[in-house]
Amino acid sequence: MTKQLTLEKVQEAQALFEKHENDLAILLQDKEEQIRADLSSRRDALIEAYDEATDDFQLSLECLLEAPAPERPGPEAFLQAGRLLLDLASIAAQLDELDQEEQAFYQLKKKAVEGRLN
């Protein structure tokens, strides 16, 4: 009789463990999808900002370099072009940081999957 009760308790515990394991897997999958969506959204926004900054800088540079000498803009225009170049470099650095975050995320995911398999 005691062996039967013990077996039933072990089976109940095992079933509860499996249920929690499945619940956790679902939560992890949802979180992974949220992280992927966030990374994708951030990447899209940064790429758009990078493209706009590149266009602005190129336009500014063309205006500076192609204007005839008497019509060439003053020092403020050169400063503005410098600011645009700094914006471009800042966005490029943010894209690089995002790449590093993505790599860290996927390495962590890989380790988690390997851990589950072992």
DSSP strand count = 0
Major sheet characteristics: none
Shape: rod-shaped
Helix/strand/pairing category: mainly alpha
Share of helix, binned: over 70%
Q: Taking all residues together, what is the mean pLDDT?
A: 88
User: Order of SSEs, N→C?
Assistant: HH
Keywords:
118 residues, mainly alpha, 92% helix
Explained architecture:
- The chain has 118 residues and is mostly helical.
- The chain has two helices and no strands.
- It has helices spanning 2-66, 75-117.
- Helix 1 runs antiparallel to helix 2 (75-117).
- The mean pLDDT is 88.
How is the topology of this model organized?
Elements: H1 2-66, H2 75-117
Helix pairs in contact: 1-2
Short description:
The protein has 118 residues and is an all-alpha fold. It contains two helices and no strands.
